């Protein structure tokens, strides 16, 4: 099957999954009701009944969030794997998720509003990556990529300790449940205003990754080979790190920590279109959106209560990743 056919089928699958996601839930919709809702919105004939409210204020922003966050985490994961030349790397390799977790937990611990918690999470993610990059530059190791990874692991461990400490000190009745739920990830609290606030930031991260994706092929070579081909390795790597980190921090700030997407989706994209990042990054974006749409739809439909996304992504992602490893070994 040619790549163009595979990509066409992916777009078709995306459309089907998005339609199922937007019509499924506690208040299910038929396609005719969906068409009526959209027509009323376009013509300004909004009735403000329960169906309109549920769809436009809850369901529609949630589906958009799943597309944006799923695609964002996936393309960030693909970028990190290319930069660090390691297929086992995920978006939290430099501590962005751990740092965002510290910021969010601190915001909850101090009793701030949801908006403040999101700002704390966003700032924590960016600050952690900046700290990792600064310490790695001070180390001046022969292999700068290895330095970044090792410092990222160490700082992530420190962030994990800080989160554990605040969980112990938190009020077990009012604060601890909120902390636990946030760390497990979910889209249930996302509103249209949240999307409006993070979408421009994520777009700023998307643009360099998409426009400069061909350079990722060169960056995935050794630094000496990349320099021989005329690439400014340090500047290019920094641009990609900043872009992927901005996307990840924005996503984590409103959705919590959603694991595995950034790790397994790039592998799926490579199976579909190969290792060329010119195709792999856009396909990762699309596959990530599809996977989070499916996972979020399951999270709010398979049980009487809504399941945290982190539980489902781990339950689906870990076996799938093992299957990929076994398939690669056989190949």
From TrEMBL:
Gene3D superfamilies xrefs: ABC transporter involved in vitamin B12 uptake, BtuC (1.10.3470.10)
SUPFAM superfamilies from the entry? ABC transporter involved in vitamin B12 uptake, BtuC
Q: A Pfam family name for this chain?
A: FecCD
Q: Does the keyword Mitochondrion apply?
A: no
Gene Ontology cellular component annotations, sorted alphabetically? plasma membrane
According to its UniProt entry, the protein's GO biological process terms are: siderophore-iron import into cell
Q: Name one GO molecular function term.
A: transmembrane transporter activity
- The membrane spanning regions, by residue number, are 63-81, 93-111, 117-136, 148-170, 190-214, 235-265, 277-295, 307-326
Alphabetically sorted, this entry's keywords are: Cell membrane, Membrane, Transmembrane, Transmembrane helix, Transport
Entry's localization field: Cell membrane
Describe the family membership recorded for this protein in Swiss-Prot or TrEMBL.
Belongs to the binding-protein-dependent transport system permease family. FecCD subfamily.
PANTHER family, sorted: FERRIC ENTEROBACTIN TRANSPORT SYSTEM PERMEASE PROTEIN, MOLYBDATE IMPORT SYSTEM PERMEASE PROTEIN MOLB
Q: What is the protein name given in its UniProt record?
A: Iron ABC transporter permease
């Amino acid at each position: 099957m040619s790549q163009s056919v595979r990509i066409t089928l992916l777009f078709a699958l995306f459309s089907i999954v998005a339609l199922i996601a937007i019509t499924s839930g506690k208040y299910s919709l038929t396609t005719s009701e969906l068409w009526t809702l959209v027509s009323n919105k376009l013509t300004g004939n909004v009735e403000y009944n329960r169906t309109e409210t549920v769809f436009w204020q809850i369901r529609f922003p949630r589906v958009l969030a799943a597309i944006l966050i799923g695609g964002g985490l996936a393309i960030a994961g693909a970028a990190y794997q290319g930069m660090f030349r390691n297929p086992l790397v995920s978006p939290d390799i430099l501590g962005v998720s751990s740092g965002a977790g510290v910021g969010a937990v601190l915001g909850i611990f101090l009793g701030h509003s949801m908006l403040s918690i999101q700002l704390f999470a966003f700032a924590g993610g960016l600050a952690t990556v900046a700290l990792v990059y600064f310490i790695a530059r001070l180390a001046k190791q022969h292999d700068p990529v290895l330095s970044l990874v090792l410092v990222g692991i160490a700082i992530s461990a420190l962030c994990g300790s800080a989160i554990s400490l605040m969980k112990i000190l938190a009020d077990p009745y009012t604060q601890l449940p909120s902390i636990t739920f946030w760390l497990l990830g979910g889209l249930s609290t996302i509103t249209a205003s949240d999307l409006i606030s993070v979408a421009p930031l994520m777009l700023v991260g998307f643009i360099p990754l998409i426009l400069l994706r061909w350079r990722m092929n060169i960056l995935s070579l050794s630094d000496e080979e990349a320099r021989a081909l005329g690439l400014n390795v340090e500047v290019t790597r920094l641009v990609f790190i900043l872009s992927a980190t901005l996307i990840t921090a924005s996503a984590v700030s409103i959705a919590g920590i959603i694991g595995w997407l950034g790790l397994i989706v790039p592998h799926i994209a490579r199976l579909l279109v190969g290792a060329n990042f010119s195709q792999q990054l856009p396909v990762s974006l699309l596959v990530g959106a599809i996977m989070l749409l499916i996972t979020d739809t399951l999270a709010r439909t398979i049980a009487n209560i809504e399941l945290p996304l982190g539980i489902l992504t781990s339950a689906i992602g870990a076996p799938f990743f093992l299957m990929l490893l076994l398939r690669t070994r056989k190949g």
